[in-house]
Specification:
- The chain has about 250 residues and is α+β, with helices and mostly antiparallel strands.
- Strands 6-5-4-3-2-1-13-12-11-10-9-8-7 form a 13-stranded antiparallel sheet, covered by helices on one side.
- A hairpin with a 7-residue loop joins β3 and β4.
- α3 packs antiparallel against α4.
- The radius of gyration is 21 Å and the shape is globular.
- About 30% of the residues are buried.
């Protein structure tokens, strides 16, 4: 009995010590650190998929397009709007966007894409770099609360108020540690907040992928559905070079 009691006491002490070493999640930086640490060395660094893009505009017009998307971590997202051979699309980095028409660069803007650091960058780079990438979107990383979304427990980073819908914020599944939703401005500083909801998540390539995304933005609604996704493909750097937009080998050909 004495040995059993000693063993139980030792186990309890070890468990308490382990819990003490796990930093409590009290702010957005801790959430990002937890996301990074959980998937460090596991998350895929490339992703490709075909996307059905259903656009309903506030003026009543409706359009369905097929896009071909390529991500290479931690910073690049290429979107071919229509067949890649047409040369139309956009290239995003963590802090810039390049607009392509007919294979030619038509405009470059110092505005990044908030999806990149939260669906890929956070798992592949130091947390401090992810925090820097998120800075232009004005998430208040000092404020957070816990909530629920789609029946899942979430960390809500950016506000302490559960009914706040006007502050930039993002919601992370507390168990799977993946992005489920964000309210953020897509565009220059001062852009109205869009509400992006990530759904139909599947495990792939050591991580997760939302295969349906709905983005409500000022009366416009864009619904994206992904198909034929692949991870860990060998994607050439040339695919993400605006000067080789139509000449670089493309996986969709």
């Amino acid at each position: 009995m004495k040995r059993l009691a000693a063993a139980m006491a030792l186990s309890l002490t070890a468990a308490c010590t382990h819990r003490a070493r796990v930093a409590p999640v009290t702010d957005g930086r801790a959430v990002l650190a937890q996301m990074h640490d959980h998937y460090a060395g596991k998350w895929y660094n490339t992703l490709t998929f075909q996307q059905k893009t259903d656009i309903n505009r506030r003026d009543g017009t409706h359009e369905v397009q097929t896009w071909y998307e390529s991500l290479k971590g931690p910073h690049w997202l290429r979107i071919d709007q229509g067949l890649p051979s047409l040369g139309n699309g956009v290239l995003y980095s963590s802090d810039s966007v390049y607009l392509m028409r007919g294979g030619q660069l038509t405009r470059a803007v110092n505005v990044g894409n908030p999806f990149i650091p939260l669906i890929m960058g956070v798992y592949l780079q130091p947390v401090d770099r992810t925090i820097a990438d998120l800075a232009p979107y004005h998430f208040n990383l000092d404020q957070m609360h816990r909530g629920e979304l789609d029946g899942r427990p979430v960390y809500v980073v950016g506000t302490e108020d559960p009914v706040d819908s006007i502050s930039p914020q993002f919601e992370v599944d507390t168990e799977r540690l993946i992005l489920l939703r964000m309210r953020v401005g897509f565009g220059p500083p001062g852009s109205p907040l869009a509400d992006a909801h990530l759904m139909n998540l599947v495990e792939t390539g050591g991580g997760w992928l939302a295969t349906k995304v709905a983005i409500a933005n000022g009366g416009n609604m864009q619904t994206e559905e992904y198909a034929d996704w692949h991870t860990r493909m060998d994607l050439s750097d040339a695919l993400f070079d605006v000067h080789q937009w139509t000449t670089a080998p493309h996986w969709a050909h």
